[in-house]
Amino acid sequence: MTSAVIQFIGSIRLAIPLLLVIGSILIGATFYESEVGSSVVQQEIYKSPWFGALMFLLAFNLSVSTLLRYPWKGARKIGFAMAHWGLVVIIAGSAAVIHLSVEGMLLARTDGGPVSTLRVEGDLLEVASPGQELQQTSLFIKDNGTVVPDHLGNLSLLGYTNHAIKTVQFRDGAAIANPAVRLSLSSNRMGQTLERWLAVAPANYDRMDIGPAELQIKRVDSDQELQTELANSQQKTGAAWGTLTLQQPDGTQTIDVKSSLHQAVVLDRVNLTVKEFWPDFRLDENGQPETATQQLRNPAVQLELSTDNVTERWFIFGNPDFQPIRTQLAGNTPLDLDIHYDISADAQPDAFFKVLVDSREQLHYAAKSSKGFKSGPLALGEPVTPGWADFKITLEEYVPRANVERAVVALPVGNEGGEPALQVATAEGQTRWIPWGEPTTMETPDGSWYLAFSPKLMRLPFALKLNDFIVERNEGSESVAMWTSLVTLMEPITGELSERRVWMNHPTWFKGWKIAQASWNPGDLAQSTLQVKREPWWVTGLTWLGSLMVTMGVATMFYGRAVAKKLKFVNDLLDSPESDKQPEEAATIPIFSFFSSR
């Protein structure tokens, strides 16, 4: 019985199904990797226990098959054994590569300093709970949002999303009055409903834009002020976008910003053009001016002034705390003038919905649209039509004394944008989304939990400085031919410096680490992403040794007898009997059975 089991383990009857199963898995994994990425395939397939068991069983099959043919006499048997042991060594080396090697990405910039922090595969969760020591674990996120492992101590890991946003909620219980309301805006025509919070404090939560309209909450201190708001009787004065006042030695002149936009205005000896206007000025991520909203909140104007010999560009701000910025475009003598930007216009938008809180903490509304103005009391659950298409605004919640609570929420499925976040739950059922890369405090009845969901990082034993990043293009076109990173590698202990050149398919090695060009950013040529990988020397040695053994084994099976006869080195090897036909139980994989039967 035992002999029959051993014969089966080392037989071709086990080898063929094993090879078919492993081959099918590898083919499927190749297509799966193109969809989900290598990290998912590594964790779900190559590093999984079941795949490791299959590869171990194949190695065991090869080993038993080889041992069953002992003693290895004759060129074919020696070659057979050498090739099979080589395959076993390759399998062992592959397992070592998968489980012991270190690989990650290094982001370097020409305008930055040396970097030595490697972003390796996976994420890290650190948890400090009341009365417990710091715990941490590596996380693997599947493509369906499932987290492995699903527990860390008493904390459950419920799921993951790439689309979470930070929100603010308001809860009753503040020591002072701080009115806050939750409004819902619904439109049957657009098929959507939005919910928004407004609060008197903190700053910037008292108003927000909804397209061209504005939502606002305002506390009024007297009945007279309330009646003024409800009657929309505020007096509008001045020009819509304000006026510019030019003071020259021989007089003062005023122009209207809106009517002068993109127009050349001749003012005595100066030609003035209002080039641009931003009602809510700010700088974008590239440092270029833009308007945050269409509301007149932080207006700014760009002017160009010229005489016969001098041309200047001015930036004038409606905020009196900001001084004008003037640039000399032509000429050497600055213009002798001063400019003031006066915002005397009513900054009230053309369409708005105001929530008014009176001195008795009662709510009212005032709404304006292209259809007119309306106002009245605002009650919970009763929709108001402000006149913006078919929109209805409903008061869903009113908190007279609101505390601010900031939270992270996941966007509904199908929405884009947001940031990665991990959802966790305590043993008592309290849940929380933890934003990626931002330490978070979670208050529970037992005390405060401190959690950090962050990238998995590793400190390299050397530093890398990106000196230059070169993109070469094909002659006569804009298509990219090659991109190259010129780097300096620095060993901190010895102070060794090494200049290297890394480009596609041409990596470099330093202190046992392989550095290869991974990717680049076409929109930012000061940045380069490099792949850094380390494998223990003996792991690489196993792979090369196994390949050499397989090559020598196959060569011995094919040419060993002929070479031995010709050189007459192994007469006793040639005289040893060798069966022309091997029993089926002693065979392993088909190709070597074919060789050994010839």
Brief rundown of the structure:
24% of the residues lie in helices and 43% in strands.
Which blocks of ≥5 consecutive residues have pLDDT under 50? 578-598
The gross shape turns out to be elongated
Structural class of the secondary elements?
alpha+beta
Number of helices: 10
Percent of residues in β-strands: 35-45%
Q: State the helicity in percent bands.
A: 10-25%
Described by strand count, sense and barrel closure, the largest sheet is: 11 strands, antiparallel
Radius of gyration: 38 Å
Alpha carbon gap, first and last residue: 31 Å
Overall mean pLDDT stands at 84
Number of strands: 34
Number of domains: 4
How would you describe what is shown here?
- This protein has 598 residues and is of the alpha+beta class.
- It folds into 4 domains: 159 residues; 90 residues, no CATH class; 111 residues; 100 residues, no CATH class.
- The strands form 7 sheets. Strands 1, 2, 3, 4, 28, 29, 30, 31, 32, 33 and 34 form an 11-stranded antiparallel beta sheet that branches. Strands 5, 6, 25, 26 and 27 form a 5-stranded antiparallel beta sheet that branches.
- Helix 2 runs antiparallel to helix 3, helix 4 packs antiparallel against helix 5 and helix 5 runs antiparallel to helix 8.
- The radius of gyration is 38 Å and the shape is elongated.
- The two termini are 31 Å apart.
- One of its GO terms (cellular component) is membrane.
- This is Cytochrome c biogenesis protein ResB.
- It is found in: Membrane.
- Keywords: Cytochrome c-type biogenesis, Membrane, Transmembrane, Transmembrane helix.
- InterPro entries: ResB-like_domain.
